[in-house]
Amino acid sequence: MLPLDGFRILDLTRFLSGPYCTMVLAEFGADVVKVEQPVSGDDSRRLAPKVNGESYPFAMPNRSKRSVSLDLKANRGRDAFLRLAAEADLVIENFRPGVVKRLGIDYETLKRGNEDLIYCSISGFGQTGPYRDRPGFDIMAQGTAGFLRMTGHPDGRPTKVGIAINDIAAGVTAVYSIFAAELVRAKTGRGQHLDISLVDAGLAWTVWESGAYFGGGETPEPTGTRHRRSTPYQAYRTINGYVTIGANNDRLWERFVTRVVDKPEWLTDERFATLPDRMAHIDQLEAEIEAITATKTTDEWVEILDKAGVPGGHVLTYEEALRDPHIQSRGMIVDLDHPIIGAMKTIAPPTRFSGLDVKVRGPAPWLGQHTTEVLGEAGFSKDEIDALYADGIAFDAHPELHPASVSKIGTNDRAHLTSPRIGARLMSDDLVVERDGAVATVVLNRPNSRNAITLEMYKAIPALFATLDSDESVKVVVIRGAGTTAFASGADISEFEEVRGNAKDAKSYNQCVAAAEHAIENVTKPTIALIHGYCIGGGCGLALSADLRFGDDRTRMAITPAKLGLVYSLESTKRLLDLVGPARTKWILMSGQQIGAEQAHRLGLLDDVAPVEDLDKLTYDFAKLLTTRAQFSVRAAKQIVGRILSGQVEDDEDTIKLRNTSFDTEDYAEGVRAFLEKRTPRFR
Known about the structure:
By secondary structure, this protein is α/β, with parallel strands linked by helices. It is built from 30 helices and 25 strands.
């Protein structure tokens, strides 16, 4: 049993202060449901480093939680949240003051449906006061609380504490405040609103500094590693680094001078005889001590200090600290298995209870991982949940990772199709062509099945690309999946039994696949695959047929014949081989493993990677850039690279003619004119 078993928390917090608080509460037994906006989620999901598109820093304070993704700006999203809040014990948020009121999810609103609700608000400067409306992150709080002026070395620039101290202070303050509020609620049945600010929480930790200021008017200044009230208590230089020494009372001082540095005369030296004397001559004392400590290594001094019974220790880097045998023996590093990141490590809860099993309860969730589960627990019907998904109000970033959950995806991202950049011309229900000037976009339009490619789609692609190739108003072709969940999850396996059930049908099917990939590869105009999310199997085959591939930071690519008992075609294998080389081609085909965006970029499968919200702009900006270049040169570059990849290594009659012809084109004439006139060329 854990202290907060059965305690339900709706966590609206982002970044660090709130997530740290709810991480601690989750590991004390609370069911923490992290509520995030669709598509982007908690802002800290964008933080690098990322593994397979998932943020490792996000995973640290968000472990042991569940994730629900709802659009709270939509009326139905807010209504869904209110239904969840009616059964919650705690709602915690760290928006700027006033935001929850505008969203209709503030304390006064929620307590009308849940009278004993505890509601915790964390903000930079609090819910009241002249600074309440200021946005406030940790560094602003450190500045306002005076920390930047009391940290570092004397006469140095303002220095930030090495960790986000005010964020963590606010998170810890919220933890004990919530426990106190729950104790009151258990006795009285009444909930309440907790108002916590990063500045207040940090300021409350200035215990000795405030005593010195109120008692003697002393303003705390930077002291490096020195203690403000006692010495020797700091880090001293050694042969190979530093050693910390804490001989900060008379008993330890005597041991230090007689057993450690062998300076018994310091006991009667008028500069050092008493603590006030030592503080008055702290610079001289530091110089005297460091002249001695600089003669031995840190390890040697730690051994001497230990034997003398004087506190002392190493000054480690963070990497060295995590490798330290004591840290390891205390079990402070925990191994987890994340569904996307894979094997990962995190820092354990710091308290060892004799009668409580407080531990990391699981990895951080992917965005919206538990949306369906939590809504179902709240009494939503399957039809209601499907409707929320269909309208983009509910969201699950990786529905394909749930066991037997394909039907759950709904149409998270239909907004791309209902509000296209320009009017869309429907080629079929499953293929859409959009035009934006000289850029044409082919959309794989099956969001309910993660844009899985049907046989009819494969059959339609060659004619479609031939039409685009013959249209001189089209200069660049982009191919993408509908929405931002997937480029294409592969061929539609649900129709395999019907269209690929025997060798004869399989041969015909494979010919259609090859024709579609060949059509994309051989269109004379540059092609770009815009890859949001999953790009698997047949989807990867189409993407590799394009000239360039731009992906978002959640992209996951895989070619999966080894998982289906199939054999990848020679032509498709060659495309892969040309990009990544023979060994990596074998690894990709033999393993069928999914490859995250960063690794795909390193391998050469992706030519550029951007955050999900920036990928469209990146892709279309580049596509439009290509439309401003000399089209004869652009298409010739594609043709010559294709010849080299097919094995040609020397110029032949055709390539020589291609180069010579360029001098007769209007593009060349305009390029020369523009150069001489020092202006941007205007190619047609």
